[in-house]
Trimeric intracellular cation channel family protein
Amino acid sequence: MDTFLIAFDLVGTFVFAISGAAVGVRNRLDLFGVLVLSFAAATSGGIARDVLIGATPPVALVNWQYLAVACLAGLITFYRDAAIEKLRNPVQMFDAAGLALFAVSGALKALEFGLGPVSATLLGMLSGIGGGIARDVLVARTPVIFQSDLYAVAALAGAAAVVAGHALALPLAPVVVAGAILCFGLRYMAIRHGWRLPVADHREP
Amino acid sequence: MDTFLIAFDLVGTFVFAISGAAVGVRNRLDLFGVLVLSFAAATSGGIARDVLIGATPPVALVNWQYLAVACLAGLITFYRDAAIEKLRNPVQMFDAAGLALFAVSGALKALEFGLGPVSATLLGMLSGIGGGIARDVLVARTPVIFQSDLYAVAALAGAAAVVAGHALALPLAPVVVAGAILCFGLRYMAIRHGWRLPVADHREP
Amino acid sequence: MDTFLIAFDLVGTFVFAISGAAVGVRNRLDLFGVLVLSFAAATSGGIARDVLIGATPPVALVNWQYLAVACLAGLITFYRDAAIEKLRNPVQMFDAAGLALFAVSGALKALEFGLGPVSATLLGMLSGIGGGIARDVLVARTPVIFQSDLYAVAALAGAAAVVAGHALALPLAPVVVAGAILCFGLRYMAIRHGWRLPVADHREP
């Protein structure tokens, strides 16, 4: 089970790193800038979570596999940019899977560190969306997760499901699976059907 | 006294969350993006302070009231945007009050954790201005606190007054009140009279 | 030796603060905004490193000399902007020296805190480049270190050299000097000869 979780975590790292590298390539960063952005996009959510719960040094810095996987994804994206662009739809699906896993595992880790339900839900969401926020802030654009198809909402829902199951003392495995499916499903449906949250009816005064 | 301080802290959270939500609405974020920005603007200063002094997990994540107050402010701003725009002057006064309280309480907390006078002053200032910096960085603009009417200076002055009073072993309550009045007063006068710091006389070479 | 290291560290702080202040002046920040940006550019790398390894409160907040040196550099740049612009080439050399020192001392500090070779290398690099990233994010532009002349690569090389020497149990002093020379030399050659990393051949689809 643990091996399975680590494998899944590294898959999430891989797809998030691809999203970071793709943004770097589009913003004309050089090769090393692309690799830094890959690593930042893949690990910032987990690093922020670890710093906030006091689990320093963060696992993404201690475990070299995160760096290796992120650099591999960055190199592939850098040298095979056109192929990655064509795969945009599959990548979005992988990204939704990564989001689901990071949200669920982030909430679990916060609960393990003794945080309450509200904090654990917030930290699960942050683990999922933090990488995308860091990626976009580093190229000076408003994070797309603030504007797109239930991205942060899906992460929140997945994390909340895990926290609720934990509070009800349900068995862990089905709770984790349900949380991940809820997050992935919400995001999948939002992409397919263009589900969006309202935008305020703002007029310049 | 403690209840009073918490009440005041939550008022500060409320007005800072309004400023975050107003920026989010103007930048066409969706509802959830607006709520995230409300929470970030209201709590980033305190969260940064807590991480820097090693007080993890940060109180704004542990205490659910911060989240509730920030979301309430975000919802009101989202659905009553026009009304909030009309209230701009009162909101600016509330914001100055929030700044005063966060600067003062931030400096106090740093002193309690055993930090020296320079660090405590800096951390008090950061507690006050951190939320505004996070809000603006997240929508990819230069923080207005770098350019506006003694904003950061007022926070620094309030925090420094508290640290000075603490160093002189003066009684706490009047020192705290004096620091808050100093910060609020400076900011109020700057807004009223357009007080500004100089900008360098830069010519493109 | 320790006095020498501290002196060198403060020289690095000074030149990084100049780079922050120069960016602030160009972006029309007011005097206090320029000082905040000076301090942020000079200390963010070290502060991020200290937070990530759990060494809170960060030394740059505890030791008042960092603040004093950064403010001095900021004041000089603010009032002698034209002179600083003329000194651009010498400043770039100082900046390369600061980068070398921060990368090397950052890696050393991470090793002292018991981190492994990969983490220590990454944290050394982050110590060197973090200030420049914070400076640019705060004025809402893509960090130039992602696009310029081996900046981050030089920091990585310097940090990696120190970590390698440590792993081989070589004597500390020559390893540190070698790491710093490697970083400085790479950066110097890149500036002189316009060495650059490739940029991906991206076409808008």
The interface with chain B takes residues 51-54, 113, 115-116, 118-119, 122-123, 133, 136-137, 140-143, 145-147, 150, 152-153, 156, 196-203, 205 of chain A (CB under 8 Å). Chain A has one domain: 2-193.
